[in-house]
Specification:
Distance between the termini: 46 Å
Order of helices and strands: HEHEHEHEEHEEHEHEHEHHHHHH
Pfam family, one: AP_endonuc_2
GO molecular function: L-rhamnose isomerase activity
Protein name: L-rhamnose isomerase
Structural class: alpha/beta
Number of strands: 10
Radius of gyration: 21 Å
Number of helices: 14
Enzyme class: isomerase
Organism: Micromonospora globbae
Bound molecules: beta-L-rhamnopyranose, manganese (II) ion
Length: 393
């Protein structure tokens, strides 16, 4: 499969042209580890400047037309105005991410806190996020909870599930007809003994109980080492319960490195299940989002690189010869089946993507185009002074 034939190229590039990847507002801001945040020059000072950066990424890649917000990091007085500004820049506002993990009240949890007053406050924040969605036109409410415990006996594991279910129910019932609740899971951290939504099974069970507007979101960095994420993708897609992805890479824990950097083969395997499930089309409703932090590398080029990494994995997945694969699988021909997959994975899809970009009126090399654009020199000069945005690590 080193030289895909013309009909194959046509099919693949058409699918790639329609692909949509959402970038996260927080990836444009300063971030770091619990040891140190290294500030960078030209970093946005407010949500408007984050959106301007996201729009630049979209101008160069052509496939990143939405930007996710995180509340309260992106709180503004007038969300309709923010949405208008985004449209003027050529992008729209995407998922609204709730944040119930950075307030002192949440030391023992947010929606599962033993104190009903704290739970009320956390649920009210979730409801506020849906209010914001109404104003921004966002479809998705994305929920990640840091809730859990550090010590055996610290709290009642089962009661915390009851509290979680009650909170999710309130948020779910507040959703409009075209809105969704996407529930994220994470193995551990910041809680180290129990986590209230630690895995896809827990998230899936809660989403099933809630109803059709609740779906699971897979953050690729939120699993134990060696977890077969493509299995989870296949299972949830089949069940109609996959809402989207938070893409990033991990070596050890929730590293939030660039997607496709640590394990491009895993990303390919994930995208293969997406293609297999016919879920790449925007109408399939899967949100392909990045959730990353660029602590030491320049942020905008890193986000461009991440978008390109997703495109490359997708292109390879689209090149899998589905008929040959199915035939080999039916025949029990293990080696051929594996070879079909590996042929696609080993294809250099970069020339095809460069051609597609040229067809779309874009520079074939978005990273070089960014370097030439003068954008960085401009934001470095314009954004001197003021308080740089960051998530306060
Ligand atoms: C969490 C989770 C959420 C993200 C925050 C910043 O670990 O992945 O999706 O919004 O981090
Ligand atoms: Mn995430």
């Amino acid at each position: 499969m080193t030289h895909p034939d013309a009909p194959t190229r046509q099919r693949v590039t058409q699918a790639l042209r329609n692909q949509r990847i959402e970038t996260p507002s927080w990836a444009y801001a300063n971030s770091g580890t619990r040891f140190k945040v290294f500030p960078q020059e030209g970093v946005p000072r407010d949500p408007y400047e984050k959106i301007a950066d996201a729009a630049m990424v979209h101008r160069l890649t052509g496939v990143a037309p939405t930007v996710a917000l995180h509340i309260p990091w992106d709180r503004v007085d007038d969300y309709a105005d923010l949405a208008r500004y985004a449209t003027d820049q050529g992008v729209t506002l995407g998922a609204i991410n709730a944040n119930v993990f950075q307030d002192n009240d949440y030391k023992l949890g947010s929606v599962t806190n033993p104190d009903p007053g704290v739970r009320r406050k956390a649920i009210d924040h979730l409801l506020e996020c849906v209010d914001i969605m109404d104003r921004t036109g966002s479809r998705d409410l994305k929920l990640w909870f840091s809730d859990g415990t550090n010590y055996p006996g610290q709290d009642d594991i089962r009661a915390r599930q009851d509290r979680l279910a009650a909170a999710l129910r309130e948020a779910y019932d507040r959703l409009g007809d075209d809105q969704r609740l996407l529930l994220e899971y994470k193995l551990f951290e910041p809680a180290f003994y129990t986590t209230d939504v630690p895995d896809w099974g827990t998230a899936y069970a809660h989403c099933l109980e809630l109803g059709p507007k609740a779906q699971v979101v897979i953050d690729t960095g939120h699993h134990a080492p060696g977890t077969n994420i493509e299995f989870i993708v296949a299972f949830l897609l089949r069940a109609g319960k996959l809402g989207g992805f938070d893409f990033n890479s991990r070596f050890y824990a929730d590293d939030d490195l660039m997607v496709g950097a640590a394990d491009p083969f895993q990303l390919f395997r994930i995208m293969h299940e997406i293609v297999r499930g016919d879920a790449l089309r925007p109408e399939a409703g899967i949100a392909f989002m990045l959730d990353q932090c660029h602590n030491i590398e320049p942020k905008i080029p890193a986000i461009i690189r991440s978008v390109m990494n997703v495109q490359e994995a997708t292109a390879k997945a689209l090149l899998v010869d589905a008929d040959a694969l199915a035939a080999a699988q039916r025949a029990g021909d293990v080696l051929t089946a594996n070879a079909v997959l590996m042929d696609a994975y080993h294809t250099d899809v970069r020339p095809m993507l460069a051609e597609l970009r040229a067809d779309m009126g874009l520079d074939p090399d978005p990273i070089a185009a960014y370097a030439r654009s003068g954008y960085f020199a401009r934001i470095r000069a314009e954004r001197a002074g003021g308080q740089q945005a960051g998530w306060g690590a």
